[in-house]
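QA checklist item 7 of 12: single-chain prediction sanity check.
[x] sequence parsed
[x] length recorded as 91
[x] structure emitted
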Amino acid sequence: MPKEMIKGTTKSGFSYKISKDRLNNYELLEVIGELDENPLVLSKVVIMLLGKEQTAKLKDHLRTDDNIVPADRMSEEITEIFQNQSETKNS
């Protein structure tokens, strides 16, 4: 049986697909809960949410001309993905 997927595009133009199973992962919630005390776990949140392949695509999407992936922009994208998912759930 195919997994139910949530699809979306962020304001910056990054398109993503996330299985509902990934969003319904208790360990993901635990790591998100650690973000306030340890912002370094953001990378773990991104990989748990998007998987390695989409994480690489998002990093390339955000990469600057200086070949840097800004942490603040990554955080904004992930926040937006979560907000989009919750808006989809509520509609």
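[x] summary fact logged: The CA atoms of residues 60 and 67 lie 9 Å apart.
[ ] second reviewer sign-off
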